[in-house]
Amino acid sequence: MTKMSGVAAKTKEIVKKHGRDKSELIAVLQDIQDTFNYLPKKALDAAAKALDIPVTRIYEVATFYNSFSLRPRGKHLVEVCAGTACHVQGAMNLMDKLKRDLDVECGETTADKEFTLEEVRCLGCCSLAPVVRIGGNIHPYLTQDEIPKILRNYRKQG
Model-level pTM greater than 0.85? Predict the structure, then answer.
């Protein structure tokens, strides 16, 4: 079995788990992204076929929600909150430090595929500002000085 057919086969399993129900499209896309860490074209094509939905409809949904990515991401998604409270508390300084330490621009993935750096509008943690979410974990009241240690800990997790 080739890698690409493996993607299609895994996607068909995901769709089957959701009962091949068209109303489950978002849940199917979430599971595909959880499995592959992004939405591969081959997976979207397989989902469209299995759900009997035009692939253009799947792309409409996948591109509407910021939580979905059509590009491969690193093992750890680093999201810098740029909401008002975080912005006022220095989130952009955190972003600059992360860009330097990871050697990437916002929206890019590190060469070793460990981290993808993104900016998000609000993480809903305004009282903890500034915050960065890494791999789903919130890091509150973050300072630039704490970033190297946090990144090292995530690298150790592999």
Answer: no
